[in-house]
Design brief:
The protein is α+β, with helices and mostly antiparallel strands. The chain has 4 domains: about 80 residues, no CATH class; about 80 residues, no CATH class; about 90 residues; about 90 residues, no CATH class. The two termini are about 35 Å apart.
């Protein structure tokens, strides 16, 4: 979770129902009934569990409690900390923020002839290729291999929006779903990327929080962050600085924590440099954060009391290490912190952990920690 979201979700809790429980409401209604009955009749009354009046009161309390829950929910939906779904979209409308649509992944693909031809070779728009017969990429316009040439490279787009089209490594998209005459070979030359599912509530809440900074063109740090995150749901953490007068340095990560490629950098640079966003005197430079390499070397032990859960704990520890790597590399300028690694391994069920790497390292505000190697050793069971 980035700093903006932590600011939102760490705000004090509020309630519109005084946190009353169903049992408290039922007890209060029975007590009030008995007290009022005695006031009117002058006689005390006790309601047994089978008393019809008690049953009626309990039934009414159920409906009243449901009403209190709806009141509490309705009140909370006016706050970023709690709002979700359609309620969050209405909050966004107050700030002029609209939900970003899902996006389709793209990849550069090379179409090759077996040998050069004397005529142009046409590849019609809508021609599809695949790598697994589940996800397909298509040409959006006609592609022509000129006479005398043997290949042409074109950007192809996934037929469906979402992350499913991402991460096809170069060479994986190599099956022609729709064969084209004279084409002998097809292959993607870049890894597919850019596909994003519908914007998450967390992403939208963050942009709503930052929206006031974007009412004018960029200029302040928050404004550049807001505009960067509004360029597409694939943008993750953003760090903005000014290394010299008039220069705005924007570093960013992808939403999945990976480093951006040249296409993603060019896309964000074009977006931020548009006249309606960039102050005339600003020179905007966009790039990936610098990588600070670190390694993980740790040995952990499990209490002999937990021998029956040994296999599950070992799996949980391995998962915790992977989550630590994602956390460490999920924010630009986050210092390398072995204490966080120890904490996560202990929470996973380990009794003791010895970490020799990484060591505490303060990294520049424009850098990000990237794990180069992991050596996790299970030391076995030991007594308390």
């Amino acid at each position: 979770m980035n700093d903006t979201l932590e600011t939102i979700y760490s705000l004090p809790d509020v309630t519109f129902g005084d946190d009353i429980s169903l049992e408290d409401l039922q007890s209060a209604m029975i007590t009030d009934f008995c007290e009022r009955y005695q006031e009117i009749t002058g006689k005390p009354i006790t309601l047994s569990k089978a008393d019809p009046n008690r049953i009626i009161l309990l039934a009414v309390a159920q409906y009243l409690y449901q009403g209190l829950l709806h009141v509490d929910k309705a009140g909370k939906m006016n706050f970023l900390k709690y709002a979700y779904g359609p309620y969050l979209r209405h909050l966004a409308a107050f700030k002029g923020v609209t939900e970003m649509e899902p996006q389709k992944a793209t990849a550069m693909v090379r179409w090759s002839l077996e040998e050069a031809r004397e005529q142009d070779t046409a590849i019609p728009a809508g021609t599809r290729i695949t790598g697994d017969w589940e996800v397909f990429f298509e040409t959006l316009s006609d592609v022509v291999i000129p006479a005398g040439n043997t290949d042409a490279t074109v950007k192809m787009t996934c037929t469906e929006a979402g992350e499913k089209g991402n991460n096809f490594a170069p060479g994986e998209l190599c099956i022609m779903t729709d064969p084209v005459p004279f084409i002998a070979d097809v292959v993607n030359t870049t890894q597919s990327a850019g596909g994003m599912d519908a914007e998450s509530d967390e992403s939208l809440a963050e942009r709503i929080y930052l929206a006031p900074a974007g009412y004018s063109v960029a200029g302040s740090e928050a404004a550049y962050i807001y505009h960067a995150k509004s360029s597409g749901t694939e943008v993750g953490d953003v760090r903005v600085s000014s290394p010299s007068a008039g220069v705005v340095d924007v570093r960013f990560l992808m939403a999945d924590g990976s480093l951006p490629d040249t296409d993603a950098i060019a896309k964000l640079s074009d977006y931020l440099s548009a006249d309606e966003r960039r102050p005339l005197t600003d020179y905007v430079q966009v790039s990936a954060p610098d990588s600070v390499s670190y390694t993980i070397a740790a040995t952990y032990y499990i209490s002999s009391k937990n021998q029956s859960m040994e296999a599950g704990i070992r799996t949980a520890v391995e998962t915790a290490v992977e989550e630590y790597k994602a956390w460490q590399g999920g924010a630009i300028g986050r210092d390398i912190n072995p204490n966080e690694l120890v904490s996560r391994i202990m929470q996973a069920g380990a009794k003791r952990v010895v970490v020799t790497a990484p060591v505490s390292t303060v990294i520049p505000s424009t850098s990000v920690g990237v794990c180069a190697a992991t050596n996790l050793t299970y030391g076995g069971l030991e007594n308390d």
